[in-house]
Write a structure and sequence with these properties.
The chain is of the alpha+beta class. The chain has two domains: 4-151, Jelly Rolls, CATH 2.60.120; 152-197. Helix content is 50%, strand content 22%. The chain has helices at 4-16, 23-31, 88-93, 114-123, 125-151, 154-164, 168-171, 174-181, 185-194; strands at residues 34-38, 43-45, 53-59, 61-67, 73-80, 84-85, 99-103, 107-113. Strand 4 (61-67) and strand 5 (73-80) form a beta hairpin. Helix 4 (114-123) packs across helix 5 and helix 8 crosses helix 9 (185-194). The chain is globular, with a radius of gyration of 17 Å. The two termini are 31 Å apart. The mean pLDDT is 93. This is Cyclic nucleotide-binding domain-containing protein. Residues 17-86 form the Cyclic nucleotide-binding domain. InterPro entries: cNMP-bd_dom, cNMP-bd_dom_sf, RmlC-like_jellyroll.
């Protein structure tokens, strides 16, 4: 995206999909967000820190990842153009997170200080309602993911991923997609060549 007007249009489309804010509320909400640029593999929020921002993705791909003491990684979530992002549990509780939010590609984001977002939500209840609806949507998605991880085979998880987000192969490197659905990168590659969707 080349300019702030295009960023605003993308932000407006995403927010208006919830059908909660009027134009004044949308503009007040948007005014909290400032553009920031990050290079590939930049850490937005580090494990052990507290999430200070609500992000909106204009360009690029990011992920939330957990890493254990032995260096094993589990990709929890991807964000990309038109998504809000940030580490929700830390944002809501104010506690340090065990996850890292990082860019996978060069990224252009808008970010708002979460305390300013909360304060605006007290003045404009519709903004508070928007945040609540967004959280419900995110929670619903996480419950679906939990079922997928616990109940489905590797091939079924692969099919579900590509059915839900067919564009994801074009924007997220395969090794991260394999990690996200909990399969070996070699098996992911085999599924690409053998599974008919």
């Amino acid at each position: 995206m080349d300019n702030l007007e295009e960023s605003y249009c993308l932000f407006e489309r995403t927010v208006n999909a919830f059908e909660i804010l009027n134009q004044e509320e949308l503009q007040k909400f948007y005014a909290l967000f400032k553009p920031v640029n990050f290079s590939r593999k930049s850490v937005l929020t580090e494990s052990g820190s507290t999430e200070k921002y609500l992000y909106f993705v204009v360009e690029g791909v990011q992920r939330i990842v957990f890493q254990d003491d032995l260096g094993h990684e589990a990709t929890i979530l991807f964000t990309y153009q038109g998504n809000f992002g940030g580490i929700l549990d830390s944002m809501l509780t104010g506690r340090a997170t065990q996850y890292t939010y990082e860019t996978l590609t060069k990224s252009i984001l808008l970010r708002a200080n979460i305390n300013e977002v909360r304060a605006l939500g007290k003045i404009y209840p519709a903004i508070h309602n928007l945040l609540f609806e967004g959280l419900l949507y995110a929670f619903s998605g996480l419950l679906e993911r939990l079922v997928e991880i616990q109940c489905y085979s590797a091939e079924e998880k692969f099919r579900i991923l590509l059915k839900r987000s067919p564009h994801i192969l074009q924007i997220v490197p395969q090794k991260y997609l394999a990690n996200y659905i909990g399969i070996d990168a070699t098996n992911f590659s085999k599924f690409l060549n053998t599974v008919k969707l």
